[in-house]
From TrEMBL:
Zn(2+) binds at residues 100, 103, 140, 143. The keyword Transferase does not apply. It comes from Saccharococcus caldoxylosilyticus. This is Ferric uptake regulation protein FUR. The keyword NAD does not apply. Belongs to the Fur family.
Length: 154
């Protein structure tokens, strides 16, 4: 955790920004909730628990800055809410998501499954890929199991 805060601090410095206490509070919330996909409001409520003096506008600006610096990625799962997702360290491209349409759970695939597709796009469309978003919408394993159990009870 401390290492990652330190590395994010360096990334900010390189880009000419300081890791102010407000920014650090936001970064720490993102690191503590790395598995989650928090909206700006979610982040704000969590920041407020520890640093009640920080306002929503400040948190929002910090999230935008972190997005600009590619420390976080912004993603929308189709519900109209922008969510902020820490980029995996060293990953060239954004990770993939599996969104369950029944329970709303979100799982992450860190491995880039698109490398072959990228090669085709770059070759056939002469398009230089910088990043991508891949979200699968479907039914998670747990919900499938639940359906099986319901079937068996009938
Ligand atoms: Zn994610
Ligand atoms: Zn990729
Ligand atoms: Zn589910």
């Amino acid at each position: 955790m401390e290492d990652r805060v330190e590395r994010i601090k360096k990334q900010l410095h390189t880009a000419g920004y300081k890791l102010t206490p407000q920014r650090e509070a936001t970064v720490r919330v993102l690191l503590e909730h790395e598995e989650d996909h928090l909206s700006a409001e979610d982040v704000y409520l969590l920041v407020k628990e520890k640093s009640p003096e920080i306002g929503l506008a400040t948190v929002y600006r910090t999230l935008e800055l972190l997005t600009e610096l590619k420390i976080v990625d912004k993603i929308n799962f189709g519900d109209g809410v922008s969510r902020y997702d820490l980029r995996k360290e060293g990953a060239a491209h954004f990770h993939h998501h599996l969104v369950c349409i029944e329970c709303g759970s979100v799982a992450e695939i860190e491995e880039d499954l698109l490398e072959e597709v990228e090669a085709i796009v770059e070759r056939d469309w002469k398009f230089k890929i910088k990043d991508h978003r891949l979200t699968f919408h479907g039914i998670c394993y747990r919900c499938q199991q639940k359906h099986m159990e319901e079937q068996n009870e009938k």
